[in-house]
Write a structure and sequence with these properties.
Layout: H1 5-13, H2 20-35, H3 43-55
Helix pairs in contact: 1-2, 1-3
Length: 93
């Protein structure tokens, strides 16, 4: 069974054998996938991830548990003047 993009990225990020540039790029890809900003990796990204995954022989090795997803609900922001608006327009009481 072929591992998913997230699984491969998590396995890569769990190793200490990446360069700083690779770690940063893979972390950004992982965060984008996990946060829903990206549906899947592009063809070039996937080839790069798969190449490093096979070069480091990570298939089938136990992985540390993943952290909980970082998905956060968008918080409603209230502007300073919005909290003091009257409930009804003037003259319609």
């Amino acid at each position: 069974m072929k591992p998913t993009d997230l699984t491969m990225l998590w396995a890569l990020l769990s190793t200490k054998k990446l360069t700083m540039g690779e770690r940063k790029a893979f972390q950004n890809m992982y965060d984008d996938l996990e946060g829903g900003r990206m549906v899947g990796l592009s063809k070039q990204q996937r080839l790069w991830v798969e190449k490093r995954y096979t070069d480091l022989d990570l298939h089938g090795k136990p992985l540390p548990p993943r952290p909980p997803p970082k998905r956060t609900k968008a918080q409603a922001t209230t502007l300073p003047w919005e909290g003091k608006l009257p409930l009804k327009p003037p003259g319609r009481g």
